[in-house]
Each structure stands twice: as structure tokens, then as C-alpha cells.
Design a protein that fits this description.
One of its GO terms (molecular function) is heme binding. By secondary structure, the chain is α+β, with helices and mostly antiparallel strands. Helices cover about 30% and strands about 15% of the residues. It has one domain. The chain is built from two helices and four strands, in the order H-E-H-E-E-E. The protein has a two-stranded antiparallel sheet. Bound molecules: protoporphyrin IX containing FE (HEM). Protoporphyrin IX containing FE binds next to helix 1.
Amino acid sequence: MDDKWPRDAFLPFNAGPRACLGRRFTETESVAVIAMIVSRYKIDIKEDPKFAHETADQRRRRVLRSKPGLSMTPLKVPLVFRRRQET
Ligand code: HEM
């Protein structure tokens, strides 16, 4: 993956003195939520014969397409969640 994307363009919590006070909280909570989901589900990108010959880079671009704006909206995230076995 190329590392030339403008990192400063991603400011979900804003910056400076009025930046989000809940940032640390929400980042910690998000990791906990994602860990819980991933421990319960196996998550795969939906297989589609239409995209059988795409490269890894083309697949990444397709799956991560988003609509830019005040908030960024994913266009289509073709994920499949399969429940893992209960232990
Ligand atoms: C994904 C979750 C969150 C996002 C993306 C987010 C984003 C933001 C952004 C962009 C601002 C700045 C708004 C501005 O520029 O005027 C902000 C402010 C703020 N956020 Fe969050 N926030 C999140 C979660 C939280 C949580 C969980 C809390 C509290 C527990 C929180 C508390 C605050 C407070 C108090 C401010 C105002 C800071 C100030 O004006 O000095 N946020 N947030």
C-alpha cells in the first residue's frame, strides 16, 4: 500500500483547543467493541464472480470507496459476517 496519502486530511476529532474531549474514550471503547465483534464473527469480503480477476489493490479500492463530505460515508462495504462457534 502506498504511504503518500495526506494523513492530515483525516481529522475525525478535529484538532486544537476545541478538539474532541471524548477522543481517548471513544478510541478505547471502539477497540473493545471491534474486539468483541471479531471474537464472535468471522468477517470476509463477499465473493462475487464479477470481481474474480481483480488485484489486491483494486479490491482494496473497491471495498473502501467512500463519499467525501463533512463526514465520510462508505459507499458499499460488501462484508459477510459468519458467527464463530460458541466456546
Ligand atoms: C466516534 C466518536 C466521536 C467523534 C468522531 C467525535 C468528534 C468530535 C469533533 C469533530 C469535535 C469538534 C467539534 C468542533 O470542532 O466544534 C468534538 C467535540 C467534542 N466531543 Fe467528540 N467525538 C466523538 C465521541 C465523543 C465522546 C464519546 C465524547 C464524550 C464522552 C465526546 C465529547 C466531546 C466534547 C465534550 C466536545 C467539545 C470539545 C470542546 O468544544 O472543547 N466526543 N467531537
